[in-house]
Structures
1.
Amino acid sequence: MEIPVKNDPVVAIAGVTGAVGAEFIATMNKRAFPVRRLKALASARSAGKTVDFRGQKILIEELNERSFDGVDIALFSAGGGISRKFAPIAVKAGAVVVDNSSAFRMDPDVPLVIPEINAIRIRDHKGIIANPNCSAITALVPLWPIHRANRIKRVILSTYQAASGAGAAAMEELLESTRASLDGRPFTPKVIPHPYAFNVFSHNTAVDPETGYNDEETKVIKETRKIFEDDRIAIGVTCVRVPVLRAHCEAITFECERPISEDEVRAILAKAPGVRIVDDRQKNYFPMPIDASGQDDVLVGRIRKDLSDPSGHSISMFVSADQLLKGAALNAVQIAELLPQRVTA
């Protein structure tokens, strides 16, 4: 085991017992992220239990106002309400917060960062850096290098979102409801508002009665414009939950200002960080959640002309990415890696 040195950061994880919290730990281990000491924080229900970290049993502490004393970096994935209450407390205590909730994403004073796109914005932080929505990250990692080469002016996007996006409890409910369905037993949903086994339904966030768009769709629209720093992009989004445990998929059609070919898109994406092309027409093999699960890259395939646009400005493609990794924990740890080390004496 690598021995922490004095100037390694003290890291706190708020929400350590959740699905993303577990991935924070796994990702820090995989990437050898330097940690002098880990503080594992959760609700009172989990206090006193332990989590494994680099051969040690770390005692889980109840999250409170003193939890961030002496902490350099705080990774949050405990929900928007917890973030709104405790992130400012962490900052006041001297920590830099990387927040995985939606609490601060649209705050003009908070950078919204995907390192492959706008890592430079990390320098603008005032204590809090926001991790984008998982669906936005999945789409924007491959769209950004294309946008840089030939400005994207319009995007139509449909998501196929896994249970992992709703947390560990939703993943367990999918398993339980599927077993019940196969056994012919009744099952009453507790986490997800609709039957999950063998079913597809509109994303389980509130729907705006005026626009008809749910919160997830609105997040993708607003966050895309903020991250790309381009309010002119026209975006249409439909977000759907599918009975997949882990890794989101998205069907994306985008229109560029100038004509663009399939070969150009493939050439751009072949060099793009965080992207892996999976596009075998002969074998009918394209991005799938089963392949994206546990992977750091966004898988991109089905790259083809949009036949509804005879001008040649539009391309369609299909992507998949692990929501718990690049869509959450990995992106946050990548941000933390780029922070100037803030250490206690």
2.
Amino acid sequence: MKIEVITSNDSQKLQNAIITKIRDLINFKNLEPGDKLPSERMLAEKFEVTRSNVRDAIQKLEFYGLLKSIPQSGTFVANIGVIALNGMIEDILRLDEPDFKSLVETRILLELKTASLAATRRTEEDLVHMKETLDAYEKKVLNNKDAVQEDLLFHLAIAKASGNSTMNTLMLTITPEILTNFERYHVCDEDQALKGIKEHTDIYEAIKIQNPSLAKEKMKIHFKALYQYCYSDSE
């Protein structure tokens, strides 16, 4: 566990160092919106890191809208003033890695909304996908097997059915970290997996009959243990 943490921290420090160098390069060369950055290869040589390291840093800045990569053309400074760009990069560099509780809290807020939207917007194809993940979860639970992955796949199916690509992306972003740490923090009771079969089914049925308020209410019931974990005073 310690090795993983150290590796993660080192990777974060390296990425931040490259982002800082990219910012300094933009300032030194007085690059303006629409100006092109040197290639990944040139940046890797200049910063003495791998192209993969540079690519990760660029992708992070692109995620926040500060750079724009165009296939076969290169990477360009986005349409944002240099003062705002520097300020946003400073904010990015100060971002802490989200702790598990904050990830779970974000998941709760997202899923109450995605359940409601899915009930309104779901397609027959969405229902089929949801039912497949629901059945896979039930099968594993009844066979006394770990079903954490199937649980989250069911919720991702709901996010997809919401028809909101941003919410879907956010769910995809936070899910791997939750999946990695779910059991480590002992969030739910041992019998929660069995309860989850009925709770998942209730959510699915509410989405199937296209009742947004009922879908949201059933999701709230499903997240009772997570609510207690996030909002109880005890650690």
